[in-house]
Predict the 3D structure of the following.
Amino acid sequence: MRFKFLLSIISFHALVFQLFAQTTETTQGSVHGNFQIDGQYYNPDSLIGAPKVSEHWLSNAYGSILYTQQKFSAGIRYEAYNNVMQGFDSRYKGQGITNRFARYRDDLLDITIGNIYEQFGNGLILRTYYEPGLLYDNALDGISIISNPLKGITLKGLMGKQRSFFTMGSGIVRGVDGEFALNDLFDSLMTNWNTRVNLGFSFVSKFQADEDPDFILPENVGAYSGRIQINSGDFVFTGEYAQKENDPSATNKVQVGGKTYYSYKKGEALFLSSSYAKNGFSLLLQAKRIDNMDFRSDRNAGLQNLLINYLPATTRQHTYLMLAFNPYATQPLGEAGGMAELQYKFKKGSLLGGAYGTDITFNYSYAAGLKKQHVNDSATHLTLYKTSYAEIGKEYYHDFFVEINKKFSAQWKGTFLYANQFYNRNMVQFGSPFAGYQDISADIVVADVTWKYKSGSALRMEAQAFITKNKSNPNAGSWATGLVEWTPQRHFFIAVLDQYNYSNPDASKITSTFKQNAVTELLDITGLDSWRGQLNLHYFLLSTGYTKGAHRIALNFGKQRAGIFCVGGVCRNVPASNGISISITSSF
């Protein structure tokens, strides 16, 4: 079977190459590619909640090859999971060719056959993309055509089925998009304008047969959007509004009293973004409102599987561990919020700028639920409701931080940050106010200092604190983090990290060179119970790596706490682990 499948792939590329060979000059093409292999050996650890893994060693691996020649390009990606690492969907199991395409482009047409990655506008009704860090891939397998019939006009059309692990979803996705650059279209009228205006319109539909014996479910569901972008000197504004027809699905249904109720309410989304930048000053303002905009090619899919659209995040995606301790995930069933960010660079030689200048950033982001007005008092009010743009519901998340970046001398520089965060874990992670967890409020401080003691060599020291009174969640209590990273020469680094859960109220969360019960008995006998908190969990991690050119090898040994990892508002749960891991990346 695998041999036949490989032959079909080879035949596919050979056929496409023959079709385009007559228009492609016989010049030498180029081949590029990249590979990544991640693997981990798992040790069970009851103190941190690391489960026993029967295979001991798990791995994720993929490799991509891209061939280009003049107007023609073709690519292929192979993925292997034996078995998939902890924290990723277990349905990624096995190996195979998961992406292959052929593409031809000239001045009029851009045609792709095979797997397609595309985005209409901000992605509110369509965005297909690949993010290996999340193992997220919702590529369309089909055909895409892009055309520029006139200067200032870009037209797109596509159709296909979405990837679902090593198969495809049952639904068919079709979409068209048009973007119009008014300055180019009306060049004679707008020649002297300092403002550029672009308009865009999109339509996407999905088809899935109704096989439900109890409900009449729409087989064709359409979504449409309009957008505008204005560039005027130092000012940029982007706005997009989208609507989705009624789309009852597994994500918006509820069960009450043993009965299932689907939501036939239309969905809508609004995204606004504006920015201004001049002379070291910049201001970014964003706003977003989402209502019932979970859009999938399979109404029965869940988690991150078979999503057609993408709802942009309006919160900062942090890289420091303590700031990313409780990242916010976009809530497609209902959310309102926004972000404001101000940056200013104090000039060199000024009082606050010093000899090298100083950068300061203020950021505030906020997200809340929608205030829903029930249509009636029956159980169906959970799916039949009205909302108003003038009102918002319960707070889900806020994040306020001040960040200062300062270079003190040719050898010393630092980043210093304070943040205050609020996190409604019940709603953000579980979508229910009855999940049983307390809200988390925390103050976070970060100090990150680098000493570059000679060319290509540096010592970086990082200290972080996550201070909270919350006592009920997993990983509860306050945390402190310390990191020392040494780069003795530009190709090699070694780092030691410790995350210390110093105020976890759970007395079982202690670690020592002795057995847990022995430590507990010692505390009880001596009466030094006040020291119990000082033995709370340390998560030590030793990292080392070597980089040369486009090749990188990294090795980690130690403990990883449970948490959430997010990229662009799309998140996955990362379970606790204890063991050794390796990551190898290469490109050519």
Notes: Helices lie at 2-21, 182-185, 425-430, 516-526. The first helix runs from residue 2 to 21.
